[in-house]
Amino acid sequence: MKTDHQIQKDVAEELDWDPAIDAASIGIEVHEGIVTLNGHMSSYAEKLAAERATERVSGVRAVVVKLDVHPPGAFLDEAIAEAAHEALQWHVHVPSDVIKVRVERGWVTLSGNVDWGYQKNLAERTVSQLRGVIGVVNNIRMNEKTAPPDVEDRIEEALRRHAVREAHHISVKVENGTATLSGHVDSLADRRAAIGAVWSAPGISAVIDQLETRP
Q1: For residue 76, how many other CB atoms are within 10 A of its CB?
Q2: What architecture does CATH give domain 77-142?
Q3: How would residue 166 be classed by pLDDT, with cut points 50, 70 and 90?
């Protein structure tokens, strides 16, 4: 098992390795495998990149993000809202006609109803890459759809296809459109991949994450 010192070293190297991140502006603290990131980012996209880079490091049990976003220059909320609306319109997989955008002091709130979980997640990822965005609140809801009777088997097959490590240690239960994941994974990146695979399944309206990350 890695020591906190080794995890801190590995996280620092992974942040420095990612060209989308200014690693010099990030402080790293580790306690019992829980990593806390402190500092200031120039964009919300960079903040997300730092979080995901940390999740890729083996031995990381959880990530606490205390990164503030301070975009260079001034961005009017109206300009951010217009850019978000256009970005959603141009994305081929996002039903922009049913998604509403509200911006307040750089915070983007998304609302509306979509048919698929991946559409909800894509909408959030799309606006998170825009200049001037401080954070994103995703209030998009799922339209009620009946999951096929073999959805659990199909999700488990997807986990194996996606090469999620320790997929055979993940249990999937679906009830009334809510999928519950339990079991163990080796990293937070595997955890994120497993949840992403579930959101791509038909009829899934919510995901309950009960996965544990091995130390």
Answers
A1: 11
A2: 2-Layer Sandwich (3.30)
A3: low
Identity of the residue numbered 190: D
pTM, to two decimals: 0.84
Give the burial class of 211: count Cβ atoms within 10 A of its Cβ; 0-12 exposed, 13-18 middle, 19 or more buried.
buried
- The domain made up of 151-213 has a fold known as Histidine-containing Protein; Chain: A; (3.30.1340)
Q: Could you tell me the maximum CA-CA distance found in the chain, to the nearest angstrom? A: 52
Per-residue model confidence as pLDDT tens digits over 113-154:
999 999 999 999 999 999 999 999 999 998 888 888 899 999
Residue 163 has pLDDT above 80, yes or no: no
CA dihedral 43, 30, 166, 21 (to 10 degrees): 20
Fold of 4-69: Histidine-containing Protein; Chain: A; (3.30.1340)
Q: Name the strand (E) or helix (H) holding 113.
A: strand 107-114
Give me the residue label for tokens 């983007």: 108
